[in-house]
Amino acid sequence: MSFINYASREINCKIVYYGPGLCGKTTNLQFVYQKTAPEAKGKMISLATETERTLFFDFLPLALGEIRGFKTRFHLYTVPGQVFYDASRKLILKGVDGVVFVADSQEERMDANIESLENLRINLQEQGYDLDKLPFVVQYNKRDLPYVLSVEELRQELNPTNVPDFEACAPTGEGVFETLKAVAKLILVDLKKGR
Amino acid sequence: MANPQMVMYDEEFKEINVVIEKLLREANAKVIFLVDKNGQLISGVGEVERFDTTSLASLTAGNIAATGGMAKLIGEKEFSILFHEGEKDNLHISIVGGRVILVVLFDSRSSLGLVRLRVKKASEELTGIFERLLHKAEEKEKGGGDVESPFAEITDDDIDNLFS
After folding, report:
1. Chains A–B, number of C-beta pairs less than 8 Å apart
2. Residue-range domain boundaries for chain B
3. Residue numbers in A near B146 (CB within 8 A)
4. Which positions in chain A touch B12 (Cβ < 8 Å)?
5. Inter-chain contact A67–B159, Cβ cutoff 8 Å?
6. What is the pLDDT of residues B11-65, one digit of tens each?
């Protein structure tokens, strides 16, 4: 849940990037980190294995500016995508304000995408959240690779509720900020409603 | 929802800072900060500018979440105190009122025993303040809802400007 501090006039929101292993969650954060002005970002923390697979989470704090005199901060987290890190994934979803599901567009990863999305829904339920009521966007990543499914095919399986979705190529940054902006916007609209 | 929204008001913020500043002095600590279980920094006192408190806050919450997960696996509710010993600096991490994490950073000028003792007393005071705060936030939500919400009037332009 977002944290509103009337004393320091700040609002903090937590965004979690979810998705199957090697779909590009960390790469999304790395691109945001690279392209954000130094004064607007904190240190990016990656708790990863020696082979650079996410072990616990990546964390990137962003201070985007002010809305109505309140400093608006977004804390971006990724989860470890590998199936056996499920206990860690559950922990990171605690207090989430918005979710980005990063899908791997490659045909051979479709089953992994579906499994991960199902896992997201279950883990959210365990924490008392309903994915359909949370600010939620989908990103179809790795559009530059060969043997990718069409966006229509991906959408049919991964976005039946028609939330905002984006094509992306995370290493070059295509679609990365569009995705982030969309989920941030949904979170702020939610706040506006006073939820 | 799993947790009600965390809100902090001026009055309680000041009260909290009084308690942790007192704790800083009495425990001979270097830095003390309070973190929401979701990893958001609530307040910090002492030599805060020397440390990356945002990152510390996030990792502390991750740490508490991970040890909490371990606790459940062995049939405990949670581990309410964690202690990390370094060569020079140490961290004493404890859960206050089930919701907030109190972090005390101290070196050889203090001791674990002293920190534990002082933290215990301060925790009781902080628990009271946070309970009142939660109650207040709930009351405000019930009575008239978003009357005071500064976000009720944000426009699409406000949101778009953040990303310009």
Report:
1. 133
2. 10-147
3. 194
4. 7
5. yes
6. 999 999 999 999 999 999 999 999 999 888 999 999 999 999 999 999 999 999 9
Where does B10-147 sit in CATH, by number?
3.30.450.30
- How many other CB atoms sit within 10 Å of the CB of residue A171? 15
Beta bridge partners of B14: none
Residue A68 to chain B, least CA–CA distance (Å): 7
Residue B146 pLDDT exceeds 80 = no
What proportions of chain A, in percent to the nearest 5, are helix, strand and coil?
35, 30, 30
CB contact at 8 A, A119 and A86: yes
Facing B1 at nearest CB: one of A3, A42, A128: A128
The structural domains of chain A, ordered by start, are 3-192 (3.40.50.300)
Strand extents, DSSP E, B62-125: 81-85, 90-96, 100-106
- How many whole angstroms separate alpha carbon A54 and alpha carbon A92? 13
Residues of B in contact with A68 (CB under 8 A): 150-151, 153-154, 158
- The length of chain B, given as a count of residues: 164
Q: Which helix (H) or strand (E) holds A56?
A: strand A54-67
